């Protein structure tokens, strides 16, 4: 019997969506207001879920206090109050779209989650725009 255990978190960050190899016209056509050269920010909401068997001794799929601390150390400290394009090495050559941010978060957390458990990251960029990555 598998159960999904989840932890919510949030961070805020600035970004700009653009490709340096495209001219301004094309960047504006594809990325619109998200291509603002002075950047813009979002309050990101994150749901990290771990799915697996319940440990019969603890009753936990995973201790959610441990998951909270992992998110704080590996996600919030890396991304919160940062300019994703300028401050976060993973986005030096990668557009910080919601999809790419979700993949980066998943990759940061995966090494710290038991191999027998599945990991899912849901990232809300706005209250209505969200992406899901499961590896
Ligand atoms: N597939 C994707 N599409 C878009 C992304 C993305 O990361 N992946 N990002 C953006 C913008 O950065 C940003 O999310 C603005 O999107 P928009 O829909 O314009 O949102 P609003 O500011 O209008 O706020 P809502 O609350 O969503 O109405 C665009 N596309
Ligand atoms: Zn944006």
From TrEMBL:
Gene3D superfamilies named in the record: 6-pyruvoyl tetrahydropterin synthase/QueD
Zinc listed as a keyword: yes
InterPro entries with a match to the protein in the record: 6-PTP_synth/QueD, 6-PTP_synth/QueD_sf
Pfam families: PTPS
UniProt remark on cofactor binding: Binds 1 zinc ion per subunit.
This protein's pathway: Purine metabolism; 7-cyano-7-deazaguanine biosynthesis
Cofactors, names only: Zn(2+)
Coiled-coil segments: none
Reaction catalyzed: 7,8-dihydroneopterin 3'-triphosphate + H2O = 6-carboxy-5,6,7,8-tetrahydropterin + triphosphate + acetaldehyde + 2 H(+)
Keyword Heme: no
Key words of the record: Lyase, Metal-binding, Queuosine biosynthesis, Zinc
Group of enzyme by EC: lyase
EC number: 4.-.-.-
Family membership: Belongs to the PTPS family. QueD subfamily.
Protein name, as recorded: 6-carboxy-5,6,7,8-tetrahydropterin synthase
High-level lineage: Bacteria, Pseudomonadati, Bacteroidota, Flavobacteriia, Flavobacteriales
